[in-house]
């Protein structure tokens, strides 16, 4: 377990998956979901090189078929610490014989965590060390405790976007594949989504054309968790369907799952990032505790 801290936040990260394990303020209040397997045993997955599900659990590339688990293999891989200071740490993994069976590229994938005041910056860095162009998706899957203040309940909380936008909900099948038809999502005052457990009865709400920052807070409290994702075109909102799970995930993504009934060709699937030989890709989102 690796720790970073400053005067505002104490953060813990596990080497397995470079997964956030704890975000506490100076008073010791915990904001990160702590992984009760009754609802969801993870805390804050890093998703690479694919986001969510593949049709039949597989894809094709250059005429060959490969299998990959949901959300890719990074979440299950032990990362190495490349750099470390009191308030900053960088984790990385590289291709191995095992990853090559799922993903036939030579690569480096790094996750950087850096504290700046009350904000935690999460940066994904992908390097293509292969002789071929590389295709991938990357994103975060952090869960946050709801409630996170005393004398509040789940239904007191809401998500408020930092600007009015013509947000749309990506159309998904019952088994969570892309259907190709998006619908406008109705937000209160064009910005706010009040939390109810039954919001997630049909699984994740995935948004596109949304504002690039959102605040999780309550009408009865004074604290907030703000997530910004300026270069992530999709945002997933989720907790375990048809439960009273006391958390919500706010998930910035670069791409979407497979289309319904299509075993995707990684080189042609819409929305995936392509990276040339020798290229480097970076994307960042942040988590800020206010109040």
Secondary structure blueprint with pairings:
Layout: E1 2-5, E2 9-14, E3 19-25, E4 44-47, E5 58-61, E6 64-67, E7 80-84, E8 88-94, H1 97-102, E9 107-116, E10 119-128, E11 134-136, E12 139-145, E13 157-161, E14 168-169, E15 183-184, E16 192-194, E17 205-208, E18 213-218, E19 224-228, E20 234-238, E21 247-253, E22 273-275, E23 280-290
Antiparallel strand pairs: 1-2, 2-3, 4-12, 5-6, 7-8, 8-9, 9-10, 10-23, 11-22, 12-21, 13-16, 13-18, 14-15, 14-17, 17-20, 18-19, 19-23, 20-21
Domains (count): 1
Q: List SSEs in N-to-C order.
A: EEEEEEEEHEEEEEEEEEEEEEEE
CATH architecture: Distorted Sandwich
| Unreliable stretches | none
Distance between the first and last residues' Cα: 27 Å
Residues in helices, as a percent range: under 10%
**Quaternary structure annotation:** single chain
Largest sheet: 9 strands, antiparallel
What Rg is obtained from the alpha carbons, in whole angstroms? 19 Å
Shape: globular
Number of helices: 1
- Placed side by side, the strands forming the largest sheet appear as 7-8-9-10-23-19-18-13-16
What does this protein look like?
The protein is mainly beta and 291 residues long. The chain has a single domain, classed as Beta-galactosidase, Chain A, domain 5. The protein is built from 1 helix and 23 strands. The protein has one helix at residues 97-102, and strands at residues 2-5, 9-14, 19-25, 44-47, 58-61, 64-67, 80-84, 88-94, 107-116, 119-128, 134-136, 139-145, 157-161, 168-169, 183-184, 192-194, 205-208, 213-218, 224-228, 234-238, 247-253, 273-275, 280-290. The strands form 5 sheets. It has a 9-stranded antiparallel sheet with strand order 7-8-9-10-23-19-18-13-16, with no helix packed on it. It has a 7-stranded antiparallel sheet with strand order 4-12-21-20-17-14-15, with no helix packed on it. A 3-stranded antiparallel sheet has the order 1-2-3, with no helix packed on it. The longest helix has 6 residues, at 97-102. The mean pLDDT is 97.
């Amino acid at each position: 377990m690796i720790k970073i801290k400053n005067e505002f936040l104490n953060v813990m990260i596990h080497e397995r998956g470079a997964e956030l394990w704890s975000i506490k303020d100076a008073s010791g209040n915990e904001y990160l979901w702590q992984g009760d397997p009754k609802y969801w045993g993870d805390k804050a997955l890093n998703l690479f090189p694919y986001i969510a599900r593949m049709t039949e659990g597989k894809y094709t590339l250059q005429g060959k078929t490969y299998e990959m688990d949901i959300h890719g293999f990074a979440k299950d891989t032990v990362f190495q610490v490349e750099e470390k200071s009191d308030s900053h740490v960088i984790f990385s993994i590289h291709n191995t014989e095992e990853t090559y069976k799922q993903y036939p590229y030579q690569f480096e994938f790094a996750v950087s965590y850096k504290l700046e005041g009350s904000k935690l910056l999460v940066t994904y860095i992908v390097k293509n060390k292969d002789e071929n162009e590389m295709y991938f998706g990357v994103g975060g899957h952090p869960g946050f405790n709801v409630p996170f203040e005393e004398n509040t309940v789940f239904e007191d909380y809401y998500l408020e976007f930092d600007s009015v936008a013509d947000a749309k909900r990506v159309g998904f099948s019952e088994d969570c594949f892309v259907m190709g038809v998006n619908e406008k999502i109705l937000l209160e005052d064009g910005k706010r989504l009040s939390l109810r457990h039954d919001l997630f009865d049909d699984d994740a709400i995935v948004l596109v054309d949304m504002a690039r920052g959102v605040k999780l807070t309550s009408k009865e409290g004074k604290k907030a968790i703000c997530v910004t994702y300026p270069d992530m075109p999709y945002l997933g909102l989720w907790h375990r369907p048809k439960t009273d799970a006391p958390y919500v995930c706010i998930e910035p993504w670069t791409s979407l799952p497979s289309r319904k009934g299509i075993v995707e060709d990684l080189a042609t699937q819409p929305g995936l990032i392509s990276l040339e030989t020798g290229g480097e890709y970076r994307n960042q989102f942040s988590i800020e505790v206010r109040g």
